């Protein structure tokens, strides 16, 4: 996979603050950053016991963000109606984590555990550019006054999970969305190069290549979010697991999300974001 860099159009008031690049993937070229111009994002936030998530992190530099002995897990259904790689749907299972930088400082972000999508280009881009754990699946998303329905089926058509019900009372309205950082590690040093800054310096960027095997290369990616959320009590929302033997179903079962109510529910029907190339996390 390779990239070529172009200069962003600085005369455009909406010009990207990321450098414009083109990445080559097995499903075709992808212009970066990927633009998410309009969509729905619906997130159930769960509190789970800290010990249930430690073994899912897969990298010793990451640790779950702990509050009262519990960790935060998110299950999000996306319906991207307009993006620069076409419309598609996605489901994200993620853990809120802290990354230690070796100097006593920590930065928070989300460790992506599963990221099923509905199109080949979204799967290839996610896997080959960011190392996200993507797979193609059937995803249904319906958000109406009468309630929410999110259905995820594995590649063979078996149900992985269904999140459905009526949200409770609105707790907060028009909460501004914040940029988020994701951590992924499905990339090998033999196939991927990224720009990274030398540790402890803010100077010129340099290419870095790692000889670590696949799965040990940690990539941090900032997603620039531009939207507002309404926040609700969980109401009657609940998660049901299906009969799928897919590993994502096993992770949901291990986390026990089907056995508890979300701590809260947040929805944006004006979701907009930019997803640019990530940076390799320098070993601590």
Structural notes for this entry:
There is one protein chain. The chain is mostly beta strands. The chain has one domain (3-280): Acetoacetate decarboxylase-like (Beta Barrel), CATH 2.40.400.10. Helices cover 8% and strands 49% of the residues. It has a 7-stranded mixed barrel with strand order 4-6-7-8-13-16-20. The protein has a 4-stranded antiparallel beta sheet with strand order 9-10-11-18, with helices on one face. Strands 1-2-3 form a 3-stranded antiparallel beta sheet. The radius of gyration is 19 Å and the shape is globular. The two termini are 27 Å apart. Mean pLDDT is 85; it is low at 1-16 and 189-215.
Task: Offer a concise description of the structure.
This protein has helices spanning 51-54, 120-130, 247-255; strands at residues 3-6, 20-25, 28-32, 34-49, 62-64, 70-83, 88-100, 106-114, 138-144, 147-153, 159-165, 170-176, 180-187, 194-196, 206-208, 217-225, 228-232, 238-241, 264-268, 273-275, 279-280. By secondary structure, the chain is mainly beta.
């Amino acid at each position: 996979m390779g990239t070529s860099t172009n200069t962003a159009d600085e005369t455009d008031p909406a010009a990207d603050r990321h450098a414009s690049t083109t990445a080559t993937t097995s499903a075709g070229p992808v212009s970066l950053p990927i633009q998410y111009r309009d969509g729905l994002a619906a997130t159930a936030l769960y509190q789970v016991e800290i010990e249930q998530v430690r073994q899912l992190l897969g990298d010793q530099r990451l640790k779950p963000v702990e509050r009262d002995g519990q960790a935060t897990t998110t299950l999000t259904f996306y319906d991207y109606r307009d993006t620069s790689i076409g419309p598609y749907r996605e489901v994200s299972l993620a853990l809120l984590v802290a990354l230690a930088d070796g100097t006593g400082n920590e930065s928070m972000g989300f460790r992506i555990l599963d990221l099923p999508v509905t199109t080949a280009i979204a799967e290839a881009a996610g896997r080959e550019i960011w190392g996200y754990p993507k797979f193609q699946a059937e995803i249904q998303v319906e958000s109406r006054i009468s309630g929410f329905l999110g259905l995820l089926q594995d590649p063979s058509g078996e149900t992985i999970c269904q999140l459905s019900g009526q949200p409770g009372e609105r707790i907060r309205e028009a909460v501004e969305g914040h940029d988020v950082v994701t951590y992924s590690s499905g990339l090998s040093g033999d196939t991927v190069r990224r720009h990274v800054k030398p540790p402890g310096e803010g100077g010129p960027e340099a290419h870095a290549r790692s000889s670590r095997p696949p799965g040990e290369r940690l990539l941090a990616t900032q997603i620039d979010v531009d939207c507002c959320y309404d926040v609700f009590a969980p109401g009657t929302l609940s998660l049901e697991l299906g009969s799928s033997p897919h590993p994502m179903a096993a992770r949901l079962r291990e986390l026990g999300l089907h056995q508890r109510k979300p701590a809260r529910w947040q929805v944006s029907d004006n979701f907009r974001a930019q997803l640019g190339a990530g940076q390799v996390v320098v070993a601590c």
